[in-house]
Amino acid sequence: METDTNNLSFVERLFHLKEANTTVRREILAGLTTFVSMAYILFVNPQVLGTAGMDKGAVFTATALSAILGSVLMALLANYPIAIAPGLGDNAFFTYSVVLAMGIPWQTAMAGVFMSSILFLLISVLKLRELVIDSIPHDLKLAMASGIGLFIAFVGLQGGGLVVGSKATLVEMGSLTVPTTWLTVFGLVVTGLLMAKKVPGSIFIGMVLTTILGLVTKLIPLPHQIISTIPSMKPTFGVGIAHLPDLADPKLWAVVLVFLLVAFFDTAGTLIGLAEQAGFMKNNKMPRIGRALMADSISMLGGAVMGTTPTAAYVESSAGIAVGGRTGLTSLVVSIMFAIAMFFSPLLTVVTSNVTAPVLIIVGILMAQSMKQINWSKFEIAMPAFLTIVGMPLTYNISYGFAFGILFYPLTMWAAGRRKEVTPIMYILFFVFILLLYTINILPAK
Fold it and tell me: What are the transmembrane regions (predicted)?
Protein backbone atom coordinates (compact mmCIF):
# COMPACT_ATOMS: atom_id res chain seq x y z
CA MET A 1 0.00 0.00 0.00
CA GLU A 2 2.86 2.36 0.86
CA THR A 3 4.52 1.63 -2.51
CA ASP A 4 1.29 2.47 -4.37
CA THR A 5 1.03 5.73 -2.43
CA ASN A 6 4.62 6.61 -3.29
CA ASN A 7 3.99 5.84 -6.96
CA LEU A 8 0.91 8.06 -7.00
CA SER A 9 2.87 10.78 -5.23
CA PHE A 10 5.59 10.57 -7.88
CA VAL A 11 3.01 10.80 -10.69
CA GLU A 12 1.40 13.75 -8.93
CA ARG A 13 4.71 15.59 -8.60
CA LEU A 14 5.57 14.89 -12.22
CA PHE A 15 2.25 15.81 -13.86
CA HIS A 16 0.43 17.97 -11.23
CA LEU A 17 -2.82 16.05 -11.56
CA LYS A 18 -4.64 17.85 -8.71
CA GLU A 19 -3.79 21.26 -10.12
CA ALA A 20 -5.20 20.15 -13.48
CA ASN A 21 -8.29 18.74 -11.74
CA THR A 22 -7.83 15.23 -13.15
CA THR A 23 -7.04 11.68 -12.01
CA VAL A 24 -4.72 8.85 -13.07
CA ARG A 25 -7.68 6.80 -14.29
CA ARG A 26 -9.01 9.67 -16.39
CA GLU A 27 -5.58 10.34 -17.90
CA ILE A 28 -5.13 6.67 -18.83
CA LEU A 29 -8.56 6.60 -20.49
CA ALA A 30 -7.69 9.80 -22.36
CA GLY A 31 -4.38 8.32 -23.53
CA LEU A 32 -6.07 5.16 -24.81
CA THR A 33 -8.71 7.25 -26.60
CA THR A 34 -6.07 9.44 -28.29
CA PHE A 35 -4.03 6.41 -29.36
CA VAL A 36 -7.02 4.65 -30.92
CA SER A 37 -7.88 7.87 -32.75
CA MET A 38 -4.42 8.28 -34.28
CA ALA A 39 -3.18 4.67 -34.56
CA TYR A 40 -3.95 4.76 -38.28
CA ILE A 41 -0.68 6.63 -38.89
CA LEU A 42 1.24 3.42 -38.12
CA PHE A 43 -0.18 1.94 -41.32
CA VAL A 44 -0.87 5.02 -43.45
CA ASN A 45 2.64 6.46 -43.14
CA PRO A 46 4.40 3.32 -44.43
CA GLN A 47 1.82 3.12 -47.24
CA VAL A 48 2.44 6.72 -48.35
CA LEU A 49 6.23 6.66 -47.98
CA GLY A 50 6.34 3.18 -49.49
CA THR A 51 4.98 4.75 -52.68
CA ALA A 52 8.16 6.83 -52.72
CA GLY A 53 10.23 3.63 -52.69
CA MET A 54 11.00 3.43 -48.97
CA ASP A 55 10.97 0.14 -47.05
CA LYS A 56 7.55 -0.13 -45.36
CA GLY A 57 8.78 -2.18 -42.42
CA ALA A 58 11.53 0.31 -41.62
CA VAL A 59 9.11 3.22 -41.94
CA PHE A 60 6.66 1.42 -39.62
CA THR A 61 9.30 1.20 -36.91
CA ALA A 62 10.52 4.77 -37.49
CA THR A 63 6.92 6.01 -37.29
CA ALA A 64 6.32 4.29 -33.96
CA LEU A 65 9.65 5.34 -32.44
CA SER A 66 9.29 8.98 -33.49
CA ALA A 67 5.76 9.01 -32.03
CA ILE A 68 7.10 7.51 -28.79
CA LEU A 69 9.93 10.05 -28.63
CA GLY A 70 7.70 13.03 -29.37
CA SER A 71 4.89 12.03 -27.01
CA VAL A 72 7.28 11.28 -24.13
CA LEU A 73 8.99 14.64 -24.60
CA MET A 74 5.62 16.41 -24.75
CA ALA A 75 4.68 14.68 -21.50
CA LEU A 76 7.89 15.43 -19.62
CA LEU A 77 8.87 18.83 -21.03
CA ALA A 78 5.52 20.55 -21.54
CA ASN A 79 3.09 18.41 -19.48
CA TYR A 80 0.40 18.60 -22.16
CA PRO A 81 -2.08 15.85 -23.19
CA ILE A 82 -0.98 16.24 -26.80
CA ALA A 83 0.46 13.35 -28.80
CA ILE A 84 3.07 13.66 -31.55
CA ALA A 85 3.63 11.48 -34.63
CA PRO A 86 4.61 11.89 -38.32
CA GLY A 87 2.15 14.25 -40.03
CA LEU A 88 0.03 13.33 -43.03
CA GLY A 89 0.61 16.61 -44.86
CA ASP A 90 4.36 16.22 -44.62
CA ASN A 91 4.49 12.64 -45.89
CA ALA A 92 2.17 13.51 -48.77
CA PHE A 93 4.42 16.42 -49.78
CA PHE A 94 7.48 14.17 -49.49
CA THR A 95 6.09 11.40 -51.70
CA TYR A 96 3.84 13.06 -54.24
CA SER A 97 5.44 16.49 -54.65
CA VAL A 98 9.14 15.91 -54.04
CA VAL A 99 9.83 12.30 -55.05
CA LEU A 100 7.20 11.63 -57.72
CA ALA A 101 6.55 15.09 -59.18
CA MET A 102 10.06 16.58 -58.92
CA GLY A 103 11.87 13.30 -59.57
CA ILE A 104 14.10 13.59 -56.52
CA PRO A 105 15.25 10.25 -54.99
CA TRP A 106 13.76 9.55 -51.57
CA GLN A 107 17.24 9.37 -50.09
CA THR A 108 17.95 12.95 -51.16
CA ALA A 109 14.51 14.10 -50.06
CA MET A 110 15.19 12.60 -46.63
CA ALA A 111 18.34 14.75 -46.47
CA GLY A 112 16.01 17.73 -47.01
CA VAL A 113 13.86 16.54 -44.11
CA PHE A 114 16.95 16.22 -41.91
CA MET A 115 18.14 19.74 -42.76
CA SER A 116 14.69 21.26 -42.17
CA SER A 117 14.61 19.43 -38.82
CA ILE A 118 17.88 21.06 -37.78
CA LEU A 119 16.56 24.48 -38.82
CA PHE A 120 13.31 23.88 -36.92
CA LEU A 121 15.28 22.92 -33.81
CA LEU A 122 17.42 26.07 -34.12
CA ILE A 123 14.30 28.22 -34.49
CA SER A 124 12.91 26.66 -31.31
CA VAL A 125 16.17 27.08 -29.37
CA LEU A 126 16.67 30.68 -30.51
CA LYS A 127 13.01 31.50 -29.79
CA LEU A 128 12.40 32.90 -33.27
CA ARG A 129 9.08 31.07 -33.62
CA GLU A 130 6.95 34.05 -32.57
CA LEU A 131 8.65 36.25 -35.16
CA VAL A 132 8.05 33.72 -37.94
CA ILE A 133 4.46 33.00 -36.89
CA ASP A 134 3.58 36.68 -36.74
CA SER A 135 5.17 37.45 -40.11
CA ILE A 136 2.77 35.36 -42.20
CA PRO A 137 -0.84 36.63 -42.20
CA HIS A 138 -3.43 34.53 -40.38
CA ASP A 139 -5.51 34.17 -43.54
CA LEU A 140 -2.58 32.66 -45.44
CA LYS A 141 -1.90 30.23 -42.61
CA LEU A 142 -5.52 29.10 -42.82
CA ALA A 143 -5.25 28.82 -46.60
CA MET A 144 -2.11 26.70 -46.31
CA ALA A 145 -3.83 24.26 -43.95
CA SER A 146 -6.89 24.12 -46.21
CA GLY A 147 -4.82 23.59 -49.36
CA ILE A 148 -2.92 20.72 -47.79
CA GLY A 149 -6.29 19.25 -46.80
CA LEU A 150 -7.56 19.36 -50.40
CA PHE A 151 -4.27 17.92 -51.63
CA ILE A 152 -4.43 15.01 -49.18
CA ALA A 153 -8.08 14.35 -50.05
CA PHE A 154 -7.21 14.33 -53.77
CA VAL A 155 -4.44 11.83 -53.12
CA GLY A 156 -6.95 9.67 -51.24
CA LEU A 157 -9.53 9.84 -54.01
CA GLN A 158 -6.87 8.89 -56.51
CA GLY A 159 -5.35 6.11 -54.42
CA GLY A 160 -8.77 4.66 -53.70
CA GLY A 161 -9.72 4.52 -57.38
CA LEU A 162 -12.53 7.09 -57.16
CA VAL A 163 -10.63 9.56 -59.35
CA VAL A 164 -8.46 8.52 -62.31
CA GLY A 165 -6.46 10.26 -65.01
CA SER A 166 -8.02 11.38 -68.29
CA LYS A 167 -6.41 12.69 -71.48
CA ALA A 168 -9.48 14.76 -72.28
CA THR A 169 -10.26 16.33 -68.89
CA LEU A 170 -7.11 15.55 -66.85
CA VAL A 171 -9.20 13.70 -64.24
CA GLU A 172 -12.49 11.82 -64.24
CA MET A 173 -14.60 9.52 -62.11
CA GLY A 174 -13.08 6.08 -61.54
CA SER A 175 -14.85 2.91 -62.58
CA LEU A 176 -17.16 1.36 -60.01
CA THR A 177 -16.77 -1.99 -61.72
CA VAL A 178 -13.39 -2.36 -60.01
CA PRO A 179 -14.10 -4.39 -56.84
CA THR A 180 -11.38 -2.80 -54.73
CA THR A 181 -12.82 0.67 -55.35
CA TRP A 182 -15.86 -0.40 -53.37
CA LEU A 183 -13.62 -0.94 -50.36
CA THR A 184 -12.79 2.77 -50.54
CA VAL A 185 -16.48 3.66 -50.85
CA PHE A 186 -17.35 1.44 -47.90
CA GLY A 187 -14.56 2.88 -45.76
CA LEU A 188 -15.50 6.45 -46.62
CA VAL A 189 -19.20 5.91 -45.80
CA VAL A 190 -18.58 4.03 -42.56
CA THR A 191 -15.90 6.40 -41.30
CA GLY A 192 -17.98 9.42 -42.28
CA LEU A 193 -21.00 8.11 -40.35
CA LEU A 194 -18.85 7.36 -37.30
CA MET A 195 -17.34 10.84 -37.46
CA ALA A 196 -20.81 12.39 -37.71
CA LYS A 197 -21.86 10.46 -34.60
CA LYS A 198 -18.68 11.68 -32.86
CA VAL A 199 -17.52 8.15 -32.03
CA PRO A 200 -14.00 8.21 -30.47
CA GLY A 201 -11.46 6.54 -32.74
CA SER A 202 -13.74 6.80 -35.80
CA ILE A 203 -10.87 6.79 -38.29
CA PHE A 204 -9.19 3.76 -36.75
CA ILE A 205 -12.48 1.86 -36.45
CA GLY A 206 -13.28 2.67 -40.09
CA MET A 207 -9.91 1.26 -41.15
CA VAL A 208 -10.50 -1.94 -39.17
CA LEU A 209 -13.98 -2.49 -40.62
CA THR A 210 -12.77 -1.82 -44.17
CA THR A 211 -9.89 -4.25 -43.71
CA ILE A 212 -12.24 -6.92 -42.35
CA LEU A 213 -14.53 -6.49 -45.37
CA GLY A 214 -11.53 -6.80 -47.68
CA LEU A 215 -10.40 -10.00 -45.94
CA VAL A 216 -13.89 -11.53 -45.96
CA THR A 217 -14.38 -10.77 -49.67
CA LYS A 218 -10.79 -11.92 -50.40
CA LEU A 219 -9.99 -8.56 -51.99
CA ILE A 220 -7.20 -8.39 -49.42
CA PRO A 221 -5.06 -11.49 -48.83
CA LEU A 222 -4.79 -12.85 -45.28
CA PRO A 223 -1.54 -12.01 -43.43
CA HIS A 224 0.81 -14.89 -42.67
CA GLN A 225 1.00 -13.83 -39.01
CA ILE A 226 -0.26 -11.15 -36.61
CA ILE A 227 2.64 -10.61 -34.22
CA SER A 228 6.32 -10.56 -35.12
CA THR A 229 9.64 -9.06 -34.15
CA ILE A 230 10.04 -5.33 -34.70
CA PRO A 231 11.12 -4.58 -38.31
CA SER A 232 14.68 -3.33 -38.77
CA MET A 233 15.27 0.34 -39.59
CA LYS A 234 18.49 -0.47 -41.45
CA PRO A 235 17.05 0.43 -44.91
CA THR A 236 16.23 3.98 -43.76
CA PHE A 237 18.32 4.74 -40.68
CA GLY A 238 20.82 7.57 -41.24
CA VAL A 239 20.08 7.78 -44.96
CA GLY A 240 19.23 11.49 -44.72
CA ILE A 241 22.56 12.28 -43.06
CA ALA A 242 24.50 10.24 -45.62
CA HIS A 243 22.90 12.18 -48.48
CA LEU A 244 23.40 15.70 -47.06
CA PRO A 245 25.91 16.48 -49.87
CA ASP A 246 22.97 16.21 -52.29
CA LEU A 247 21.63 19.49 -50.87
CA ALA A 248 24.18 21.28 -53.04
CA ASP A 249 21.46 20.99 -55.68
CA PRO A 250 19.55 24.33 -55.50
CA LYS A 251 16.30 22.48 -56.27
CA LEU A 252 16.41 21.13 -52.72
CA TRP A 253 16.34 24.61 -51.20
CA ALA A 254 12.62 24.85 -51.91
CA VAL A 255 12.05 21.40 -50.44
CA VAL A 256 13.85 22.27 -47.20
CA LEU A 257 11.98 25.58 -46.86
CA VAL A 258 8.54 24.07 -47.46
CA PHE A 259 9.20 21.17 -45.07
CA LEU A 260 10.18 23.76 -42.47
CA LEU A 261 7.09 25.90 -43.07
CA VAL A 262 4.65 22.98 -43.14
CA ALA A 263 6.07 21.43 -39.97
CA PHE A 264 6.25 24.77 -38.18
CA PHE A 265 2.75 26.03 -38.88
CA ASP A 266 1.11 22.60 -38.66
CA THR A 267 2.39 22.07 -35.14
CA ALA A 268 1.94 25.66 -33.95
CA GLY A 269 -1.63 25.85 -35.27
CA THR A 270 -2.60 22.48 -33.83
CA LEU A 271 -1.08 23.27 -30.44
CA ILE A 272 -3.00 26.52 -30.15
CA GLY A 273 -6.26 24.90 -31.26
CA LEU A 274 -5.92 22.06 -28.74
CA ALA A 275 -4.93 24.49 -25.99
CA GLU A 276 -8.13 26.45 -26.67
CA GLN A 277 -10.18 23.25 -26.39
CA ALA A 278 -8.55 22.22 -23.11
CA GLY A 279 -8.75 25.71 -21.59
CA PHE A 280 -4.97 26.18 -21.31
CA MET A 281 -4.84 29.59 -22.99
CA LYS A 282 -4.06 32.56 -20.75
CA ASN A 283 -4.29 36.12 -22.08
CA ASN A 284 -4.47 34.72 -25.63
CA LYS A 285 -1.15 32.94 -25.12
CA MET A 286 -0.35 29.27 -24.64
CA PRO A 287 1.83 28.59 -21.57
CA ARG A 288 4.90 26.43 -22.20
CA ILE A 289 4.43 26.59 -25.99
CA GLY A 290 8.21 26.87 -26.32
CA ARG A 291 8.65 23.54 -24.55
CA ALA A 292 5.91 21.97 -26.66
CA LEU A 293 7.58 23.12 -29.88
CA MET A 294 10.90 21.87 -28.54
CA ALA A 295 9.39 18.41 -27.98
CA ASP A 296 8.15 18.36 -31.56
CA SER A 297 11.41 19.67 -33.04
CA ILE A 298 13.51 17.03 -31.24
CA SER A 299 11.17 14.23 -32.36
CA MET A 300 11.23 15.64 -35.90
CA LEU A 301 15.02 15.46 -35.88
CA GLY A 302 14.96 11.96 -34.42
CA GLY A 303 12.42 10.84 -37.02
CA ALA A 304 14.57 12.23 -39.83
CA VAL A 305 17.52 10.19 -38.59
CA MET A 306 15.42 7.03 -38.26
CA GLY A 307 13.74 7.43 -41.62
CA THR A 308 10.38 9.19 -41.55
CA THR A 309 8.95 12.57 -42.51
CA PRO A 310 8.42 15.44 -40.01
CA THR A 311 6.38 14.87 -36.89
CA ALA A 312 3.55 17.12 -35.74
CA ALA A 313 1.18 17.60 -32.83
CA TYR A 314 -1.88 15.49 -33.64
CA VAL A 315 -5.32 17.04 -33.79
CA GLU A 316 -6.69 13.63 -32.77
CA SER A 317 -5.42 14.52 -29.30
CA SER A 318 -8.70 16.42 -29.05
CA ALA A 319 -10.42 13.04 -28.56
CA GLY A 320 -8.39 12.41 -25.40
CA ILE A 321 -8.91 15.97 -24.21
CA ALA A 322 -12.66 15.54 -24.73
CA VAL A 323 -12.74 12.63 -22.27
CA GLY A 324 -10.80 14.55 -19.63
CA GLY A 325 -7.08 14.38 -20.48
CA ARG A 326 -5.34 17.43 -19.07
CA THR A 327 -1.71 16.50 -18.38
CA GLY A 328 1.34 14.85 -19.90
CA LEU A 329 0.29 11.53 -18.37
CA THR A 330 -2.13 11.23 -21.30
CA SER A 331 0.75 11.62 -23.77
CA LEU A 332 2.85 9.13 -21.82
CA VAL A 333 0.10 6.52 -22.13
CA VAL A 334 -0.03 7.17 -25.89
CA SER A 335 3.71 6.50 -26.15
CA ILE A 336 3.34 3.21 -24.24
CA MET A 337 0.61 2.09 -26.65
CA PHE A 338 2.81 2.90 -29.65
CA ALA A 339 5.56 0.77 -28.08
CA ILE A 340 3.17 -2.20 -27.79
CA ALA A 341 1.90 -1.67 -31.35
CA MET A 342 5.42 -2.10 -32.77
CA PHE A 343 5.02 -5.88 -32.54
CA PHE A 344 2.06 -5.89 -34.98
CA SER A 345 3.90 -4.94 -38.19
CA PRO A 346 2.56 -7.97 -40.19
CA LEU A 347 -0.78 -6.15 -40.34
CA LEU A 348 0.87 -3.77 -42.82
CA THR A 349 0.12 -6.26 -45.60
CA VAL A 350 -3.64 -5.98 -45.07
CA VAL A 351 -3.70 -2.17 -44.93
CA THR A 352 -3.85 -1.48 -48.66
CA SER A 353 -4.25 1.85 -50.46
CA ASN A 354 -8.02 1.27 -50.57
CA VAL A 355 -8.04 1.00 -46.79
CA THR A 356 -5.98 4.15 -46.23
CA ALA A 357 -7.71 6.22 -48.93
CA PRO A 358 -10.77 7.03 -46.78
CA VAL A 359 -8.39 8.17 -44.01
CA LEU A 360 -6.72 10.67 -46.33
CA ILE A 361 -10.08 11.97 -47.53
CA ILE A 362 -11.48 12.37 -44.01
CA VAL A 363 -8.33 14.11 -42.73
CA GLY A 364 -8.50 16.34 -45.81
CA ILE A 365 -12.05 17.31 -44.88
CA LEU A 366 -10.98 18.19 -41.35
CA MET A 367 -8.08 20.33 -42.56
CA ALA A 368 -10.22 22.08 -45.19
CA GLN A 369 -12.49 23.43 -42.45
CA SER A 370 -9.95 26.21 -41.94
CA MET A 371 -11.37 27.89 -45.06
CA LYS A 372 -14.39 29.13 -43.15
CA GLN A 373 -12.21 31.49 -41.10
CA ILE A 374 -10.60 33.20 -44.11
CA ASN A 375 -11.75 36.78 -44.77
CA TRP A 376 -13.22 36.18 -48.22
CA SER A 377 -14.90 39.60 -48.29
CA LYS A 378 -11.54 41.33 -48.96
CA PHE A 379 -10.31 40.48 -52.48
CA GLU A 380 -6.72 41.38 -51.64
CA ILE A 381 -6.83 38.52 -49.13
CA ALA A 382 -9.21 36.21 -51.00
CA MET A 383 -7.02 36.02 -54.13
CA PRO A 384 -3.75 34.83 -52.54
CA ALA A 385 -5.69 32.57 -50.18
CA PHE A 386 -7.65 30.99 -53.04
CA LEU A 387 -4.56 30.50 -55.18
CA THR A 388 -2.80 28.86 -52.24
CA ILE A 389 -5.69 26.46 -51.70
CA VAL A 390 -6.30 25.41 -55.31
CA GLY A 391 -2.63 25.56 -56.25
CA MET A 392 -1.72 22.57 -54.08
CA PRO A 393 -4.08 19.92 -55.52
CA LEU A 394 -4.17 21.29 -59.09
CA THR A 395 -0.38 21.44 -59.48
CA TYR A 396 -0.02 18.28 -57.39
CA ASN A 397 2.62 20.12 -55.43
CA ILE A 398 2.27 21.68 -51.98
CA SER A 399 5.27 23.96 -52.49
CA TYR A 400 3.63 25.66 -55.48
CA GLY A 401 0.54 26.41 -53.38
CA PHE A 402 2.75 28.04 -50.75
CA ALA A 403 4.50 30.02 -53.45
CA PHE A 404 1.28 31.30 -55.07
CA GLY A 405 0.03 32.73 -51.79
CA ILE A 406 3.31 34.28 -50.71
CA LEU A 407 3.91 35.82 -54.14
CA PHE A 408 0.45 37.33 -54.61
CA TYR A 409 -0.20 38.56 -51.07
CA PRO A 410 2.26 41.50 -51.12
CA LEU A 411 1.08 42.49 -54.62
CA THR A 412 -2.64 42.54 -53.83
CA MET A 413 -2.08 44.27 -50.49
CA TRP A 414 -0.05 46.97 -52.26
CA ALA A 415 -2.81 47.42 -54.84
CA ALA A 416 -5.40 47.73 -52.05
CA GLY A 417 -3.37 50.44 -50.32
CA ARG A 418 -2.53 48.18 -47.36
CA ARG A 419 1.21 47.84 -47.91
CA LYS A 420 1.99 48.82 -44.31
CA GLU A 421 0.32 45.60 -43.16
CA VAL A 422 2.84 43.49 -45.08
CA THR A 423 5.70 42.47 -42.78
CA PRO A 424 9.37 42.71 -43.86
CA ILE A 425 9.71 38.93 -43.63
CA MET A 426 6.88 38.55 -46.17
CA TYR A 427 8.88 40.67 -48.63
CA ILE A 428 11.93 38.51 -47.98
CA LEU A 429 9.86 35.37 -48.61
CA PHE A 430 8.48 36.99 -51.78
CA PHE A 431 11.94 37.20 -53.35
CA VAL A 432 13.05 33.87 -51.92
CA PHE A 433 10.14 32.08 -53.55
CA ILE A 434 10.73 33.80 -56.88
CA LEU A 435 14.29 32.49 -56.79
CA LEU A 436 13.20 29.02 -55.68
CA LEU A 437 10.48 28.69 -58.35
CA TYR A 438 12.93 29.85 -61.00
CA THR A 439 15.51 27.36 -59.78
CA ILE A 440 13.06 24.47 -59.66
CA ASN A 441 11.78 25.06 -63.18
CA ILE A 442 15.09 25.61 -64.98
CA LEU A 443 16.83 22.62 -63.44
CA PRO A 444 16.04 19.18 -64.87
CA ALA A 445 14.75 16.49 -62.52
CA LYS A 446 17.28 13.90 -61.48
Answer: 28-45, 57-84, 104-128, 140-164, 176-196, 203-222, 252-272, 293-315, 335-366, 386-412, 424-443
